[in-house]
Amino acid sequence: MPGPPTEDEFIYYFYYLRHTMNFKASTLWSTYSRINNNYQRRYGLKLQTLSRLKHLLKQFSVGYERKTAQILTLDQLCEDFRSPRHHQNGHYENAPLHLLIAVDFEATS
User: Fold this and answer.
1) Which domain holds residue 23?
2) What is the CA radius of gyration of the chain?
3) What is the pLDDT of residues 4-24, one digit of tens each?
């Protein structure tokens, strides 16, 4: 069985994901986490020991503004739920989760 990938191989891979595949910083960190999990199970090593890789990911994060969720009011939830675009053949198919919460809230009110 071949040995673990080198730090240079990881750096090349993440550089490829960022610049060729246009992955955002948050996606790169998620990928790093998943790879780290597998790397630990397979080789008993942590990616945190690869300092140049972590430094590269931090560089990719500079200037990145994380999106935050919008908090909707009850009126917005109910208005969106009553919208005909979600109503089809008497069913609310593919309705977003916040609409399902609004239904539950209205049912219990």
Assistant:
1) 7-61
2) 22
3) 999 999 999 999 999 999 999
Residue 87 counted as domain residue:
yes
CA-to-CA distance for 33 and 27, rounded, in angstroms?
A: 10
**32 in a structural domain:** yes
Q: Do residues 57 and 85 both lie within one domain?
A: no
pTM: 0.58
Task: Give the tens place of pLDDT for each residue, 87-102.
Answer: 555 555 545 554 454 4
Q: Which stretch of DSSP H or E encloses residue 87? A: strand 87-88
Cβ neighbours for 39, distance < 8 A, ≥ 6 positions apart: 4, 45, 46, 47
